[in-house]
Amino acid sequence: MEGLPLLPGYSFKDVTQSKFNIPHHFDVKNGYAVSRKPEFGIGKTPLDVNSINYHQAIDPIRFDPSLIYGRSKSYKIPTFKPHFVLYDKQCLTFRAFFKQSVAESPDEHFRIRQVNILYFLEDDTITVMEPPIKNAGYDQGRLVRRAKIPKGASGQFLHWKDLNVGIDIVMYGITYHICNCDEFTEEFLLSQGVELNAMEEVPKDPYLLSREGFSVGPSKVSPVDDKLRRFLEYDRKVLRFYAVWDQRDQGGDMRPYVIHYFLADDSVDISEVKTANSGYDSFPKLLNKMKVPKNWKDVPLDYPSIFLERSAEEVTEYYQPKDFIVGNTVFIMARKFLIYDCDPFTRKYYSHCLKIEQPSAISVFEDKPTLPPPPLPPHIGIGAPEDTVQSCFSFQPKPPKKDVLRYVINAGKKLRYTAMMDWVHPEDKERQFTIEYNLANGEVLVQELKVPNSGFIAGRFLKAMCLSKPGSDPDNPEFYTPADFNVGSIVNVFGHRFRITGADLAVYRYMEANPEKFTSEAVHSMRAHMVRLGLLNEEIKDRAEFDLRHQGCPQTDCLQTSSV
Fold first, then answer.
1. Within-domain flag for 67
2. Does residue 421 lie within any of the structural domains?
3. What CATH number does residue 181 fall under?
4. Quick one: pLDDT at residue 29?
5. Could you tell me if 170 and 247 lie in one domain?
6. Domain count, the chain
7. Which of 98, 119, 168, 200 could pair with 179 as two cysteines, CB 3.0-4.6 Å apart?
């Protein structure tokens, strides 16, 4: 039955088959059309042996033409570049000219203006540029903005194929005659098959040719130096001279000034030196910063000086550093200035750069007798003596300045002593006091302790204040210091005598840390007092143990010597 033709009546079908759906071969996956092998036949029946599942592909090696004819050469496909990338920053340059009629001048009837026609290959745009001519008298530069230039009334635009040497082109009503082109333009047109005409010379303007014979006379001013170089090299470098303007022969006086010479631009300014009680109004500058002519009257006779200021062309010479020498007189704007001194930088500049040694300073001022300072008035008794001194300096007295460094170092440090009144009356015999000395500001505070049945109220006996010693000058008093507070010493507090009977351990530690402020007798006396109170027992014990460890026991040394 395998050899029967596939015709009606020669094929047998399954009469029990009820599904005849055909499996599809093509599908869409992730947006792409894909094909797949069918897994079942019509109605999902199994595929026979003649299906494509049993199809075997022919070995491609048997049919490889490269084995017979050889491998074919593969040529590299060039990378595609757009037109605007291929011709980026490439332009064709043509040199041309056009004639411009001049009707209002008797010297010329037309004017020849040379231009450069630039054709940009990237977008086929054209611009026309005119090289600048000095003192031309008309606008120059870009004559035609970069754009596509229309070619007549046809609606088309000029192309590089329309440009050639020796032809006329019309752009916006102006006829340009192309004379020649540059080397790149010539090579490009020849590579594109364009035959170039013969090169021509660009004609010159006859009026400009007629003016070439005129020569400009020599200038009076020397050539201008490089301003940028001088600024970078000499910026903020100023020569300073001290001078005086003597007007005593005209009924005036001799006034001091400072002359500054700026090396960056050779300019000069003059400042007035302010002196106290001079009687003159204070002006910041006598002369603003400017270049000063050496001879300000040297101008032509026909120069209109009444209404026109002098420019650099009328000035023959300006002041230079070599003109400012100590001892010389310089004339600046009809004023005589005698230079009597200069600063160290100026002397160094003249010595190293100009090889000129400036003379020594000249004494031009008379020595005026110095008045002694006025004596300070005596203390008025209100406040401290420093308050009286401050009231002499201004109408609104300011508080006297405090020793901030002393306050920061000794902040919170106080020395406390116990004292008893050196009594005169029997009822003062049992009174007990504490004296507190503040190391930060030197103030002394006296407080009375409470004693039962004494008849006196405990509390503050003397507020914290700087306590002056009896017999000292009221205008310049001498105050009590920690060196005056020793065990057994007498402290006089405004007529009340207090005898120091003791102190705390902090006083002894302070005396040990600052032995230069106390006498050796005071330190030994305070140490003996602390030993009597038993405050140094641990220190004495530790010291004894330290000596035993480092010095050794004498009895042990003797025993060792006898055994040997």
1. no
2. yes
3. 2.30.29.170
4. 85
5. no
6. 5
7. 200
Q: Report d(CA 117, CA 128) in Å as an integer.
A: 5
Q: Give domain status of residue 182, yes or no.
A: yes
Average pLDDT by stretches of 10, the chain with 564 residues: 70 78 84 81 71 57 70 80 87 93 85 93 93 84 92 87 92 92 93 91 87 62 70 91 89 89 92 84 86 77 64 77 91 89 94 91 83 81 79 82 88 92 85 93 92 88 90 85 90 91 91 90 89 86 82 46 34
Contact 321, 354 (CB under 8 A): yes
Report the DSSP beta bridge partners of residue 243: 257, 339
Whether residue 338 sits in one domain with residue 253:
yes
> 4 and 123 share a domain?
no
Which phi-psi region, left, alpha or beta, contains residue 11 (left: φ > 0; alpha: ψ -120 to 50)?
Answer: beta
Q: Does residue 216 lie in a domain region?
A: no
Pairwise CA distance, residues 143 & 113, whole Å: 11
128, 175 in Cβ contact below 8 A?
no
All residues at 6 or more sequence positions from 331 whose CB lies less than 8 Å from its CB, including other chains: 337
Q: Please state, as a whole number, how many other Cβ atoms lie within 10 Å of the Cβ of residue 181.
A: 24
Q: Which token pair is 415?
A: 């020395």
How far apart CA 233 and CA 231 sit, in angstroms, is 5
Q: Rounded to whole angstroms, how far apart are CA atoms 401 and 399?
A: 6
What are the contacts of 45-54 at 24+ separation with CB within 8 A?
45/14, 45/17
Host domain of residue 131? 83-206
Task: Please state the φ and ψ torsions of residue 540, each to the nearest 5 degrees.
Answer: -65, -40
- 116 and 171 housed in the same domain: yes
Q: What is the pLDDT of residue 304?
A: 67
HEC assignment per residue over 53-98: HHCCCCCCCCCCCHHHHCCCCCCCCCCCCCHHHHCCCCEEEEEEEE
Q: Which of these, 437, 433, 463, lies nearest to 449 by C-alpha position?
A: 433
pLDDT of 98 reads 93
